[in-house]
Every structure is written in C-alpha cells, then in structure tokens.
Amino acid sequence: KSKEKGKNHFVLCSPVIKEEVNFKTKLTNHLYHALERDELELHYQPQICLQTGKIVGVEALLRWTHPELNMIPPNVFIPLAEQTGLINPIGEWVLKTACCQNKAWQEMGLPPVRMAVNISATQFRNPKLTTLIKKLLKETDLKPRYFELELTENIAINQSDYIIEILDRLRKQGVFISIDDFGTEYSSLSRLKTLPIDQIKIDKQFIDGVAKGKTDQAIVNTIILLAKNLGLNVIAEGVETHEQLAFLKDIQCDSVQGFYYHRPMPAQELEIILQYQNDTMIKSQGVNSPCV
Ligand code: C2E
Ligand code: MG
Ligand code: MG
Ligand code: MG
C-alpha cells in the first residue's frame, strides 16, 4: 500500500524510523507520568575551586528511572520533554527541588555551596521564568548568590535581546549566571561582551583534548584569557585525568568539574563529602589555612 502513495510515504513507513517513532511516543507517554509517579531525582556533581581545593558549587543533574526501562539518560529524555512542552512542569520541579535541597544543606550546617540548575531554550521562552525563580528563592529563603543558572551558548547567542533582558533581571536579584558547553557554538566576541553573565563553562570536548595535543591546549588557554579579560569566572567541564587537571592549574583555570574528583551523586552522598570538608576546615582553622 505504501508504494501506491509514492516515495515520501514509503520513507515514512521505513521500519527503522517507525520503530524510532514508536519508541519516542512510548517514552513520551511514560515521561508524562514520571513526575506524579515520583520517578525523577536530582543528582549533584561538585565543582572544585582550584585555589582552595574546596567544593564551591554543585550542578543539579536530572535522573529518570523508569520501573521497566530503568535509567534513561537526560540526553534522551530532555529533548523529548522540550518537544512536548513537558520541560515546563519538569523544569519547575527541578528548580524547586534544587532550591529546597540547598537550603536544607545550609540548615544542616554544611559549608554553603552554589546550586547550579540547567535551563533549556523552551524554559527561557516561558515569560513566567523570572517570577518563578524569584518566588522560589523567597519561599525557600535561599540567598540568590547560592543559586546559579546554566544556559547553553546557543540560547544566549540566538535570542540575545530577549535573553539579555531576562539575565539582567536575574543578575540584579543576585543570581549567578553561567554559559554552559562554551566553545561548541560560534558566538562572536562582541556578543559575548554584551551578555550579563558571571561564568563560562568550557565544554568537555576541549578538556578531552588538552592532554593529547597543542590545538585544544591553545583553545582552552585562549578561552581562559578571554574570560579573565572580560572579568568572568571560568570552569572546566569533564575533567577526568591528572594531566588535564595539571594543565588547567598551570594556566590558572578557576574551577573544575569532572569524574576526576566526583561523579554526579544523590544528595545523601554529597552530604557526607560536604561534612568531611567542614570537619577538615575546622581542624585547619588558624593554621594559615588557604580557605576563604
Ligand atoms: P551538561 O549541563 O553539560 O552537564 C554535564 C554532563 O557531563 C552531565 O551529563 C555530567 O554527568 C557529565 N559529566 C560531568 N563530568 C564528566 C566527566 O568527567 N566525564 C564524562 N564522560 N561526563 C561528565 P548528564 O547528567 O548525562 O546530562 C547531560 C545533559 O542533559 C546536561 O549537560 C544538560 O544539558 C542536560 N540536563 C541534565 N539535567 C537537566 C535539567 O535538569 N534540565 C535541563 N534543561 N537539562 C538538563
Ligand atoms: Mg550544565
Ligand atoms: Mg555542559
Ligand atoms: Mg552538555
């Protein structure tokens, strides 16, 4: 039958595509119920300041465990959530959970860290985003400086006028703003200069290359110089080896995040690490400790 309708129809019925469409539809249906069925969870990955060796921030990373399909990676379900608009309720849950968690850690007396949350393009297009964040910070009584938003380079560049206005408003409240996956898009330097941001996150692909050759070393070096000249903080993503760390220390990268130090982990695991950091800080107090 499909042949009668011509080439296009035949292509649409190709078994591989059909299977993929079926899978996506099935996954979207499951995702629709993920929130109410309590299948979502946040994991947290520490960010370490290279000068002090302390955890200064954590990135909240969404995890979805379906009872039958098991763990579905965010790179698979986030795009689906974006396409279906489900990212709005899910994103709201992420923001709320992250704020509450950070406040809870502070109330436990753990050393304060900044909580970074990823915000996608669709979420930025939601006019209620800034009001929601303001409301959440007020409700949880979390100081805005302990709250960070990560947006990717292409969001910041493509919708720049609108985005600048939103970022400006958030930054005036005291929220910390980072550009995620930096270096993967072609942002012009003049655009970058006008963005109201605090930090650049160098994408993992360049960090992967620094131990292998001069090209990625040169790129990372240049990004760090650029960030410093613009008065921005700079963090390297996906640091996995000692060589990468040594190189980044050498060229005075501010902070790092990666499996070399810690993988993303559940809240309870991070609490133990933060508690340990707190104990060692107390022990070394007054002994000319470099910690600030
Ligand atoms: P991202 O924001 O760039 O997050 C960093 C990703 O790199 C995370 O993957 C993290 O687990 C991984 N990673 C960190 N260090 C290393 C390392 O040393 N080696 C390797 N191989 N990987 C490392 P994850 O958790 O799978 O998340 C993938 C992406 O999904 C994120 O990339 C982000 O774009 C998106 N995402 C995750 N959670 C959320 C969320 O709550 N909301 C939105 N909108 N997007 C999210
Ligand atoms: Mg991120
Ligand atoms: Mg990233
Ligand atoms: Mg990424």
Biggest sheet: strands, sense, closure?
8 strands, mixed, barrel
Chain-averaged pLDDT: 90
* Ions and ligands: ligand C2E, magnesium ion
Could you say which structural class the secondary elements and strand pairing correspond to?
Answer: alpha/beta
* Tally of individual helices: 13
**What share of residues is helical?**
40-55%
Q: SSE string, helix = H, strand = E?
A: HHEEEHHEHHEHHEHEHHEHEH
Main-sheet strand order equals 1-2-4-5-6-7-8-9
Total E-strand runs: 9
How big a fraction of the residues is strand?
15-25%
Distance between the termini: 72 Å
Q: Unreliable segments (pLDDT under 50, ≥5 consecutive)?
A: 1-6, 286-292
Rg over C-alpha atoms, rounded to the nearest angstrom: 21 Å
- Give the CA-based shape: globular
Provide a concise account of the structure shown.
By secondary structure, the chain is α/β, with parallel strands linked by helices. The chain has helices spanning 7-12, 15-34, 74-84, 87-107, 121-125, 129-140, 153-158, 160-173, 189-194, 204-209, 214-229, 242-250, 267-283, and strands at 40-49, 55-66, 70-72, 114-118, 147-152, 176-182, 199-202, 233-237, 255-257. This is EAL domain-containing protein.
What does this structure look like?
This protein is an alpha/beta fold and 292 residues long. The chain contains 13 helices and nine strands. It has helices at residues 7-12, 15-34, 74-84, 87-107, 121-125, 129-140, 153-158, 160-173, 189-194, 204-209, 214-229, 242-250, 267-283; strands at 40-49, 55-66, 70-72, 114-118, 147-152, 176-182, 199-202, 233-237, 255-257. Strands 1-2-4-5-6-7-8-9 form an eight-stranded mixed barrel, surrounded by four helices. The N and C termini lie far apart (72 Å). The structure holds ligand C2E and magnesium ion (MG) (3 copies). Ligand C2E is lined by residues 45, 61-62, 73-75, 78, 94, 118-120, 150, 180-181, 237-240, 257-259, 264.
